[in-house]
Amino acid sequence: DAGVIQSPRHEVTEMGQEVTLRCKPISGHDYLFWYRQTMMRGLELLIYFNNNVPIDDSGMPEDRFSAKMPNASFSTLKIQPSEPRDSAVYFCASSTTNSNTGELFFGEGSRLTVL
Amino acid sequence: LAKTTQPISMDSYEGQEVNITCSHNNIATNDYITWYQQFPSQGPRFIIQGYKTKVTNEVASLFIPADRKSSTLSLPRVSLSDTAVYYCLVGGDNFGNEKLTFGTGTRLTIIP
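Predict the joint structure of the above. Result:
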């Protein structure tokens, strides 16, 4: 089975540009999570969805960040306008309530560099 | 959410058993203890989960004392490929309703 698929794997952009990160969760999973990882702050939960509905977005840094999940197989995280401090690795993860452990399956991440 | 405390880093030689302890003094009754492993340039990967006593799988063992205020991840006979960051998480059994906090993790370095 394919795991969580994220794109792009790497993106370099200039300050002020719009950035869109994409995620395809594992088929059948009903939870989707967006995390951000930096050396300074570690791995932070930004937002998570259940059945395509945003449940908790309190981790989203500010209004420049937005996330959508238009259907069960696709989610986006958008940053507009981007700033150098947004440089980080962004991970998407999915899970299912049918799991005995609630295990999170992570994608390989999208490394964002904002110049 | 129960806060966790674990060592920032550990070193060990190949072939040894490694034990990483995590403190979670405020663990709630319905909280499970879960450990993840993260290699460089990869997302975290689930290792093991437990509620009480001992859990063992093909990768590791998890020891949880009766008071559940701490837990120990045990990696038998480590190899260089076990060099990674290990995260201890504490949360409810329905992870979709919990904001999982990964913390800083323990950076394990295996020395040849």
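DSSP finds no helices and eleven strands in chain A.
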